[in-house]
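Look over this record before class:
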Amino acid sequence: MDSPPETNDVFSLSDQLLAERLHFVKEIGFGNWGSVWLCRPKSSSGKQRDIEVAVKLVHRSKTPTTAARVRSLWNEMKIVRSFKHDPHPSIIPFHSFIITPSYALITMAYLPTLVPVEVSEPRAREWFRSLLSGVHFLHRRGVVHNDIKPANILLSQANVPVLVDFGFAEKYDMQSPKAFHSNLTYGTPEYLSPERARGMPHDTRKSDVWSLGVTFFEILVGRTPFEYEEGEVFEKKEDLEKYWDRTMRGKWVGSYSISKAVERFLKRMIVPNADLRCTTTELLLDGYW
């Protein structure tokens, strides 16, 4: 990992100074990669200010696993920070990156509301357009998210859906012939495109579009189009293989009630053959809008 540059939003602190600057209110998320906290900055007198921020935190140690997590957080920071002066309303705003002897952390806007599911189409329609615009914004800048799902979408105070958690995101050199080419399989299994789930060479932008389409379906119906019912569990490898077989066939399962217009639109996104799957540019021009 490169040394933190001298800027006003990426810097090193001692552990004590971090404690003097941030009050960690409560943990609001966690995983193998680290944890997310609701924090309040402190004033120079040590009093908490009426500002809330989200802090994604990784513990630093000399183990290879922890070092990889810190590198991943550094990569995430570089991606979200690149939009700081060119923001999009559906991409999480970056505040700062801080590294101490014990921790590495990103501070970002705190948005407490997770996007709901099983909502009416009129309510969801503007969310869909905003999120699609956000993913289009990323792709035009050489970035893919790689983990689009309802759990990574929060609502702003203005009711705008915001894509968060860029831990799996990648940024490509747009001039490279290898831009957007991958055979990696990481991401959340139920939202992986068929080609990504199988580790096949693929265009990561098309994989993002698949995940976004599955996410849109779930916001409307409450489950993915390849689950027979909400809460169907895919913990074992053989269960996931059955699920991925369904995605390869492309036939939606279970009962659902959505308009013909949105069904046609989503079926341009949730197409097993990536060559037939639409790009974000094509989807923004779709007659659905």
Observations:
- The mean pLDDT is 93.
- The two ends are 44 Å apart (CA to CA).
- Residues 121-140 form the longest helix (20 residues).
- The longest strand covers residues 22-31.
